[in-house]
Amino acid sequence: MIYNDNLKMINSEYLNNLNKAQKEAVLYLNGPLLIVAGAGSGKTKVLTSRIAHIIKEKKAYPNQILSVTFTNKAAKEMQNRVSSILKTEAIGLSWLGTFHSICAKLLRKHATAAGLNSNFSIIDQDDQVRLIKNICKAENIDVKQLAPKYILSIIDRWKNKGYYPQQVILNKKDIYEKTIFPLYKIYQQKLLDLNACDFGDLILHCVNILENNSDINDIYSNNFKYILVDEYQDTNFIQSKWLKLLTKKHQNICCVGDDDQSIYSWRGAEIKNFLEFDQVYKKTKIIRLEENYRSSQNILSVASNLIANNQNRIGKTLKTTMEEGDLVKLNCFK
C-alpha cells in the first residue's frame, strides 16, 4: 500500500510494475501535466494506469474523463488495458476515442449550431474527390492542370488552421490558392446542402460551436474533469485549440508525447503545441520518461547523439537496463 498527498491509502497493485517516473506521472492529478515520453518508455502503460487510478480513487466518473488518441486501434488497446487493470469492462469510458470520433459524437448532439441535422453524413476521400471534380467542371477548371487531391489538401490545410472560407488569408506566394479559394466556398456550401461534412469539418465545427456558444462549452468543460491526450507532438492547431476550449473549467489536462518523434508537419502537425505547452497551460508539471524497455544501450547512445543536433526540443536522456548490444552499423547501398 502507498499513500498519496492527502495521506489516503491507495491499493497499489496496478502501480507495482511502474518505475519511479511512471508512477509519478500516474499519481500527479492536480493541474496540467506534460509527459515527455521517449521511445519504448511505456507511455501507454502510464496513460491506462492513470485512467484506472482516477476511477479507482473516485477523482472522476468514467464519463468525466476525455481520453484522445490518433487511431481506433490505440483507443481499443487503451480501453482493453484499463478494463484489465480494473478487472471489469471499461464501459463507462464513453469519451475515449480518436479526435474525429469524439468530435463526431459531440457534433451530432449540437449539429444545428453548425447548420447541420444530427443525421449528417461524413464523406470519405473518394466522395470528396467526386464532389470537387463536379465543382471544377461547373467552374470550368481543368482537373488535369489542378488535381482534385491537391485542391483538397489545401482546403484541409486551411481547416487544420481553423479557417472557414471567410477567414482564409491567402498566401500570395502560392499561385494556386487564389484559384482554390472560391472552390472552398462552393465546396463548403455543397456540404451543407448535402447535410454532410468531411473529417476536417468534424473538429472545425466543434471548435466553432464551443467558441461561440458558452452554454454548450460549459456542458463539456464542466463535465471533463480530466483530459488525457496521446501523441501530442502530432497535434495540429485546430486540435490544440479544441483541447484548450475544453479546459475552461478544469485544468487537469495530461498530454503525452515525444518531440523527437515529430514527423507529421507535412500534414499540419505543429511541434510548438508540445514545446510551448507550459506557456499555454500555466503551472505545468513536466515529467520525463527516460527508461527505455525496447532497445540496447548502443542503439540509444547513437540515437541520442544524433537527435541532440536538434536544438528545438525539450530534451531527455534515454537509458536502459538491457545489455549494450551490438554496435550500430551504417550500410550504404547503390
From TrEMBL:
First-tier enzyme category under EC: isomerase
Pfam families linked: UvrD-helicase, UvrD_C
Entry-linked InterPro entries:
DExx_box_DNA_helicase_dom_sf, DNA_helicase_UvrD-like_C, DNA_helicase_UvrD/REP, P-loop_NTPase, UvrD-like_ATP-bd
Q: Which GO terms describe its cellular component?
A: cytosol; DNA helicase complex
Entry keyword Amino-acid biosynthesis: no
Describe the reaction catalysed, as an equation. ATP + H2O = ADP + phosphate + H(+); Couples ATP hydrolysis with the unwinding of duplex DNA by translocating in the 3'-5' direction
- According to its UniProt record, the EC number is 5.6.2.4
Keywords linked to the UniProt accession: ATP-binding, DNA-binding, Helicase, Hydrolase, Isomerase, Nucleotide-binding
| Domain UvrD-like helicase ATP-binding: residue ranges | 16-296
Query: Which CDD domains does UniProt cross-reference here?
Result: DEXQc_UvrD
* BP GO annotations: recombinational repair
Q: GO terms for molecular function, please?
A: 3'-5' DNA helicase activity; ATP binding; DNA binding; hydrolase activity
- Coiled-coil positions: none
Q: Which family does it belong to?
A: Belongs to the helicase family. UvrD subfamily.
Protein name as annotated:
DNA 3'-5' helicase
